[in-house]
Amino acid sequence: MRRPDGSPVRILVVDDEPSLTELLSMALRYEGWQVRAEGGGEAAVRAAREWRPDAVVLDVMLPDVDGLTVLGRLHAVVPGIPVLFLTARDAVEDRIAGLTAGGDDYVTKPFSLEEVIARLRGLLRRAGATAPGQPSSLLVVGDLALDEDTHEVTRGGTEIRLTATEFELLRYLMRNPRRVLSKAQILDRVWSYDFGGQGNVVELYISYLRRKIDAGRAPMIHTRRGAGYLLKPAAE
Questions:
Q1: What residue ranges does this record give for the DNA-binding region (predicted)?
Q2: I need a surface site. Which of 20, 84, 181, 225 has the fewest CB within 10 A?
């Protein structure tokens, strides 16, 4: 996704947890977007004024100014800017307060990085912040196709049914075709930033995908021993 002038989309990430902002920034840069991270509300407003982001990922609980107050100041600086709230609180009244104050959407910690990206893509499209006519929802590698909006997956025109986790894993592989992805990278992107599991869960779900994607066909999912996994067209 790009701006109407062809330049990369700009995302401002505001959270006081350095490990979280680092992971989010890395994930968003994988999308080809420009990212700026700030740890407090005052710094976020200054960054919005100077940098003019296209969307903001905003933590509700900040050390200096609460997220709802920051939201109002952001809208004063960049009217109509889409804001995705991050919150560790899941009470209904907190969600209502955020949306009533002008937030566009929210995710509750812990969350999948893929979910944050998908929600941002939707917000950017609805806000008209990206160039029109971009086929952003369809990923295609060889004869394998995945629709990010409908969650439909086909190979050679045959529908393949996946669980939610299998879908997220395949989506990550397809967004990085021919690239070797380590178990650590896959855990961070598919199982959320604070997942405490072991790498064998990746092996398990790769085996599930292979049964559905590669069974009876030329393989697309490959293992690079000691390095990770990659997906590429079967003809290569």
A1: 136-233
A2: 225
